[in-house]
Structures are given as C-alpha cells and as structure tokens.
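Re-running Probable ATP-binding protein YbiT to confirm reproducibility after the cluster update. Everything else is unchanged from the original entry.
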Amino acid sequence: MKILGGDLEPTSGNVSVDANERLGKLRQDQFAFENYTVLDTVIMGHAELWRVKQERDRIYGLAEMSEEDGMKVADLEHKFAELDGYTAEARAGELLLGVGIPLEQHTGPMSAVAPGWKLRVLLAQALFADPDILLLDEPTNHLDINTIRWLEDVLNARNSTMIIISHDRHFLNGVCTHMADLDYGELRVYPGNYDEYMTAATLVRNQLLSDNAKKKAQIAELQTFVSRFSANASKAKQATSRARRIEKIELAEVKPSSRQNPFLRFDQARRLYRLALEVKKVSQGYGATPLFRGLSLSVEVGERVAVIGPNGIGKTTLLRTLVGELAPASGTVKWSENATLGYYAQDHAADFARDMSLLDWMNRWKKPNDDEQAIRAVLGRLLFSQDEIKKTTKALSGGEQGRMLFGKLMLQQPSVLIMDEPTNHLDMESIESLNTALEKYPGTLIFVSHDREFVSSLATRIIEMTPQGVENFGGSYDDYLRSQEEQAGQAPGRLQKIR
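Result of re-run:
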C-alpha cells in the first residue's frame, strides 16, 4: 500500500498513475496535523483546494493589496468556486459527524482530539476529496459497528477505484468487487467479494490438486510400462514413446499457503443451569456523570450476548463491572453460585507485565493433571513453534498476545466467557478460528465487538448502549437491524429499554 501511495519506492518495476487521476489515501500518521484545526485537517485531503484556499487567504490578509494581487485573487476566487470551496467546511463537517467527531470539536485543534479518534479525522480527510483512486489501510480500525455501517454506505455511493486492506469480513463483502490475494510473494486477483473469493480460491486449489493427482497416476502407469518393457526388444519402441510422454507431463506447482489457522476450542469444566447472571439496578461511571444508571438485566445459561454501542459509551466499563474489576456505584451483580469466569480484556497489557518465556507464562494456567507436554501442545495449536515458546512475552505482537490469552481460556475451561473486542489485532485466519470456536462453545458468552460478521454469526441477544440508555433485543444482530428498520417505518419491533 505504501508503494501504491508513493510513500515507498519499489525495489524493481514501477507504479504509474494517470496525471488526471487524483489519488487519496488514509494516512496513519495521526499526530502530523496537531497545529491545524479539525476542519482544516479534513479539507487538506483535497490538496488543490487547500492550496487555493491558503493563497486566497494569504492575499486577503495583506495590509494593502496591489493591482496584481487583486487580479490574482479574482482568479483564485473563480478556481475556489470551481472546486466547491464555499461548501468545503459544510461538507467536511458532515463527514466528521459521520465518523463520530462531535460538532464542538470541529473548530478546535487536532491536538485536542484523543488518539484513535484522530484516525477518524484522517478517514474523513481521505473521503473529503472524493478522489478517483482511494487507498484505505484498515479503515474500520477504531470505528464502532454503526460507524462501519455508515462507511460502507458512503463508499458504495462513490465511483472511485478503491484499494482496501481490512480484516473485517462483512465490510469486505459489502464494499469490494474484487479480492487480491497476496500469499508467498504472489498476487492473484479474484472477481467477487470476500466470501466469493474464498470459494473460488478453494476451488482453484482443489482443482490443481485433483489435476496433479490424475497426472501422477498417469505417470505411474506409464512408468510401470517403461520399467517392464524397456529391455524387451519387441516393445522397446513403445517404451521409449511412453518415456517421452512422461517427460512432457508437467505438474502444476501448488505452494503450501503461508496462512495457518490456530486450533481453538473452548470447553467448560462445570455446567451451569438456568440463570448465569442477574444484574439489579447497577449504576456506574467516572466522576459526577454515570455512564449507565439503574441497569437491571438477567442472562440465561447458554445465551450469547453481544454488547454494542458507540465508542466511549461504557461497554468496557460494563464488562469490567460484571467481572468484578470495578465495583458498581450502586446496585448488585450476582453470578450463579457455580459460575467460573474467563475474561478477555481489550487492554491486556497487565496480563503480560511480567517478562517470562511463553512456556512459563502458559504453565501458570495448567490444571493439576497437565504436564509440560500438554502445555507445549496447546502452544503448538496456537501456532507457536518449539523455538518460539522460549522467547519472552515482551516480544509478543498484539495478535500473538491474543492467541496466548485464548490458550489461557482453553486451559481454564470457564462456564462463562466475557470478551472485550477479541478480534482486535488478529489476522483473518485467527478471527475465523475464534469465530468457529465460540460457535461451538457450550457455555455462556458475553462479548463486545465492532466486527459485524463476528456479531452476526454469534449473538443470540443484543444489548445496545446509547446516550439515551441501555436497550435489550432478544434475537440475532440481523434481526435487530430489521427491527430498527421496522421501527423507523413505525412498525412494531422487539427493541425494549432495559429497566
């Protein structure tokens, strides 16, 4: 993506873009615009408009304007109008609201915008110019599920050529018309969205393997004849002919994929019955303003509850309150007497604060009847080699930390899993393995995720946290979306405010 965007020179070959084509890209340098206002940062996405605006403003700021300046500013005004400069702030503001930046921050400096939210401003910047070619590197990072839905609609309404890197399967299905598969240094382009690519890639690979199997059988048959009759004078000519046929048969090269799926399976050591959790009139927050007030709900055994809502609304705080990391300001949280909790925190730096080998770290969670070989086997299923398990936890990437925590939960075998954004930092293969493992998990699941495919495939119930309160929906995420559409059309739905 850096090569396509002109930020990195290729070792060989070249990338050419038509001079008349405007290229826009989602920047990752979120601290590069600290001295600009949020609105100006977005408008800078249209380089030509920003240049005209800057020069126009400079001339208007002169103490005295010469005749030459007057003629120049007249030309600039004409160009400014051609580029829709007079509506620039309104259009930039609309995009900022779309990505969740509140109105009161639009005229403030970028330095006042929280990290993570700065990337939302940069996403608005990339969209602002409506370029002919748009490069988006992980555009759904730091977005909540509703903002991702908004982004899908915005991109689908545009005619730009787009090149997107993303680990969000639903987003890729909803936006992309082609998939470029980069594996072992080779790039192959498949028509269709992500699901269609997966089907096509599997079919192509299976067809190559099938063709190779037939060719190998043919070679074996010909070789048997050659070996048997090459010394036979009456059939030597036929044997020579078959030997030449063997030389002409070419097997297709089927490289093993560099992608590997970790093996995940979550079990529960102790089964619960009926009610797993009961929350009564819980309020929680920081300072004078509570994030939620008087929350009451119950979770039955075996339910898979997705907690959704905009960033900063209190989803993580709710999970931390449920697991006991935070004491409720008021009310009670009561788990089933036999419940054992397995918690996957969004920020799990504390889990890896101690510097130790991966083997020693995982040994901390083994059962009394687990030996070292069993722990090594778990690490192997998580794709850590025998050499890698000797390295220290300080050297782990975000995705590797996630896999280690999944191993911990596999060993703990809790009756309730509570997971806060577990797909963050994971590659596609790990996300799919996690998705499958949780679908098969027999216990109770409460989770927060911005991955729509993940939520759609798992949730049997939706709890939505909004500025107006916490709402409960009994059904899948797709049912929930249909209910929202029905409510917008004044039809009855199943969305209820939790009291």
